[in-house]
Design brief:
single chain; 489 residues; alpha+beta; 4-stranded antiparallel sheet
Amino acid sequence: MSWRPWPRSLAGQLVLTLFAGVTLSLLSSAAIHLYDRNQAVSYMGSLQTAQRFADIVHTLDPLLFEEQKKIAVILETPHQFVHISEKKPKALQDNEDNQRAIHLKKIMQRFLGVKRYLQVEIITEPQKLPNSGFRHMMGLSPQTETNKGMIHHQGHMTMMRHMQPQSISFIARTKLAGGSWLEFHNHLPEEAFVWPWHLLWSIAILFVVVATLSILAIRLTTRPLAHLANAAKSLGQDPRRPPLTESGSLEVREVVKAFNNMQARLIQYIHERSAMLAAVSHDLKTPLTRMRLRVEMLDDEKLRDSLAKNLDEMEEMTAASMDYIQGTEGMEEVRLTDVPSLLEELQETWLEMGHSVDLQCAQIPAFPLMAKSFRRALSNLIQNAIKYGDEAKIKATLHKNRLRISVSDRGPGIPEEHMADVLRPFKRLENSRNRKTGGTGLGLSIAHNIVRAHGGELLLRNLPDGGLEVIATTPRGDISMETKVSTLK
């Protein structure tokens, strides 16, 4: 069986659609949140760094050069490097094409409060920090403490670059009020993608809640539809089954209501048809009786016997047709029935008629059946077994709330290609069965319809040693408490 990505059931389609929509919406929301978070963190980092730089400038502006150098040493941290020089250093690259440098310079200029000379350069490679060109620009020698600090800061910058690959470092330079120059080197984190576990947990919890509520809503929607489908399947077997409970959404209740109305109209139609056919059958008895009386007064014995035989066939066909219709409709009330007693009565009836009938019946508790109809079905099966196999063997068992009754014979059996045909009405296979037999071809059809009206199946199979076995299986159905009171013995 090939794998289908799109489920066939309504519940599966709704669940897949909702899950896909919820997943896409959560991922989109998370992506927007992370983007805004990165922008906010980057902007706030720039603000804090610019404010720190402005505070340093405002602190050092009124001081003398020596005091500025002392304060600069105090202001140095593992994250920033501050240097004071009397000589104007070599000009920095102003990174006019670097939007990040331009943005940072504007923020710093705004915090400085006055229009003053300011240079900002973004350093993309740590190796550029302590090279000879930079030392010459700063007027430093490799042996100075300041250069050692720069080398130390390069190591820190390299370490931070490994921890946060998308972070940046920059150098900012401005001229203080006393004429000295301030060099400010800082590491500015630019937020890289970091898994926000609290956000992921929030998304997971939200997903579970939405999925649970979605599944619950889908089950509330599709469960009445499943009940409706089961009711539609069983309607053909039991037209008088209890009507469905009208529950669910407004649309589902309307569908259930329409189904119940259809079932009521169907029951009424079946009842009217049965009454009409019963009336026709009853009315036919009067002309048939008059015809039989007139036939009996005929002097020609050969003609009298021929007409009498035709009348017998007409009466047999009328009775068989009524039995078939009643078995198809399954309109008899279901009652708890003593199955062993029913089978024993059938055995005694056929034994009294001089036929061989063997019965094997297990201990079977009272079973819900339409007793008269079921008795008619079994009688037809026994009759066929005796007619075509001279004997009948009945075996009844109960397994997993399913009643199984088999009737077998020692006759010629039925060809496999005609197994399904013999269950159709008015179908006789005289070429494969005994040619001396007659009948209307309704015996197995009536039994089949009665068993199906009980929700069961009628199976036919040829026995290995010869003969035919007919197996009737019937599940235990639900019956009302009023019906359970009356148990047939």
